[in-house]
Amino acid sequence: MKGPLFYSKILLFGEYGIIKDSKGLSIPYNFYNGALKTDGLQSEISIKSNSNLKRFVEYLKEISPELVTFDLATLKNDLDAGMYFDSSIPQGYGVGSSGALVAAIYDKYAYDKITVLENLTREKLLTLKNIFSEMESFFHGKSSGLDPLNSYLSIPILINSKDNIEATGIPSQRSDGTGAVFLLDSGIIGETAPMVSIFMENMKQEGFRKMLKNQFIKHTDACVDDFLKGDFKSLFLNTKKLSKVALNHFKPMIPLQFHELWKNGLDTNDYYLKLCGSGGGGYILGFTEDIEKARQSLKDYKLEVVYNF
């Protein structure tokens, strides 16, 4: 047995800001995917996945039945028969490994599920987001529910505010475009929960809250608007501002050995870096007007182009 594929995602803009109602833009990233599978537990990874899923079932029992109910008996039987989540999505990299798993479980075992084929009203999207937020909290301690939502629907999601999300279209890629969004592999696994704790601790300081509202969220919102309009000239100006604010105020989320690289991008304008997800490791997101120049500047690192314009 092999279930349908669920893809990884990239939150282009909105990391941390969406906790405090900034805009956000999340896009599917089809390079990585995962699916539920039963073909005998033949590897250490599949055995570990199977036992994690068994713990997840216990957690699902606790979710309010008013929000969502699952066919737990079938799920339990499938797990006893050796089902696991077979995934190429790297864990701790900010591209939604737990999101794809949550989407797969909801898709196969939820009763009265909202399907991708329905007319996805704002209300239905919010309901899905709330369900996914509860489900994914098992993995992160606190989840917005956006990663599973993106993975489940496999379409770009625009976050206007916490209670206002919509499916959206993004400008078509230009295969000959020199501008690009890319992923830079930090080579370190990031942990979401400790990074979110640092952020929440910082939020207790008035100065940090002010900076978040007047700079971080302001630039994030501008980047989302620019990207959706296809105004890439303005996008680069605003991404530079966002990159600078992140370097000044989100240092703990940026692995130490990348501080210099981050600053170098701001100084040379060859590329601008930003957090991909919660940071602390995993991928770092990069924006450049000239991908060849960026490749040259970052020649010691592995770049994966996500989007060309």
UniProtKB/TrEMBL annotation:
Keywords noted in UniProt: ATP-binding, Kinase, Nucleotide-binding, Transferase
Signal peptide: none
Coiled-coil region: none
Annotated GO MF terms: ATP binding; kinase activity
Domain of life: Bacteria
Keyword check for Magnesium: no
Entry-linked Gene3D superfamilies: 3.30.230.10
Domain GHMP kinase N-terminal: from-to ranges: 81-147
Matching InterPro entries: GHMP_kinase_C_sf, GHMP_kinase_N_dom, HddA/FKP, Ribosomal_Su5_D2-typ_SF, Ribsml_uS5_D2-typ_fold_subgr
Protein's recorded name: Mevalonate kinase
Organism: Gelidibacter algens
